């Protein structure tokens, strides 16, 4: 089902920058006109009457049968070049004429026809399911005259849909055209956003779909993971071909087979190649994490030395290996502090720690002084108590000494 919010599924006008706006007018060199219809469908027509049309104009063109309404995408010399590039057998292609520029009545009739597409597609899918056909209706496109529709379907093999066409013609009262598409064409019809954040190329501007193999990703040094390299259609992304030629040209300077290097520290095996930077990454055999990169010129020199039986010293690459392990190899080392990226915070932490230790020492000194002072006061108090007790004992002894003895007088009985 088409996305109602996708501009390329509901309009033929692209919202991107018009890179062809500055080119000169070449309509006098060729009368071929390229016209774009719904989604990415494009066809070629002939401007027999030499109408003053330009890119972006709505035109009414002849079809077999009836007529259709589309938007002019190329004219003149560029349209002729594109026609020769896309049409493999131009002699068997019929160039229908351009009738006129579209008026308001033609645009209203086109919008009325487009309004029937969603309900028609739902009913078309139900009819295909009732007949038990192994196919999927991907999209429906009505012509501008509202008398014919193209049913795009996806199927793995051949499908006998003769009975299905009769049902469509009876229910919708239109002429039916069945057109088989692939997964890439379906993604272009449905539309969507790619992993790059932009609208899918197949739904915005790309109309020809070439076969893409996994070798295209390997030649660019990309991840062989199918999940990362697959697009919205489930196939390999079309953008893998955009920079492939540059990588192939850069890869011609590299050896066909990357050999192991014999160094003084051991055997170095290649595991990564950067074609644009012309660098090769190596890892010493039996040494996990000890990686380093060499330029293409250095690799060729070492190979020539190995052929003469010379093993260059690995010490010349030791410093480079340590730096690359921390920055580019992606191997995390735990030797450094985790807060090494924030030196200011580290200094603040050290100052706070010193301040706390100074406060702690000052408090301990005050506590010790208080304890010494308290002990001195306690000792002085104890001495005062002892002197007072000694004085009291001396006073009592003197009092007893000065006291006169008392004698009891007993009277004898006579």
Proportion of strand residues: 15-25%
Distance between the termini: 156 Å
Anisotropy-based shape:
elongated
- Write out the strand line-up for the largest beta sheet, numbering strands in chain order: 1-2-5-3-4
Q: How are helices and strands ordered from N to C?
A: HEEEEHEHHEEHEHHHHHEEEEHHH
* Helix-residue proportion: 25-40%
**Mean pLDDT score:** 79
- Major pleated sheet: 5 strands, mixed, barrel
Q: Structural class, please?
A: alpha+beta
Question: What radius of gyration results from the CA coordinates?
Answer: 47 Å
Please give a quick description of this structure:
By secondary structure, the protein is α+β, with helices and mostly antiparallel strands. It is 39% helix and 18% strand. The strands form 3 sheets. A 5-stranded mixed barrel has the order 1-2-5-3-4.
Which secondary structure elements does this structure contain, and how are they paired or packed?
Blueprint: H1 7-10, E1 32-36, E2 42-46, E3 58-62, E4 67-75, H2 76-86, E5 96-101, H3 104-115, H4 117-130, E6 136-142, E7 148-154, H5 162-172, E8 175-180, H6 183-190, H7 201-204, H8 215-219, H9 226-229, H10 244-251, E9 261-263, E10 266-274, E11 279-284, E12 291-295, H11 296-307, H12 318-327, H13 343-402
Parallel strand pairs: 2-5, 7-8
Antiparallel strand pairs: 1-2, 1-4, 3-4, 3-5, 6-7, 9-10, 10-11, 11-12
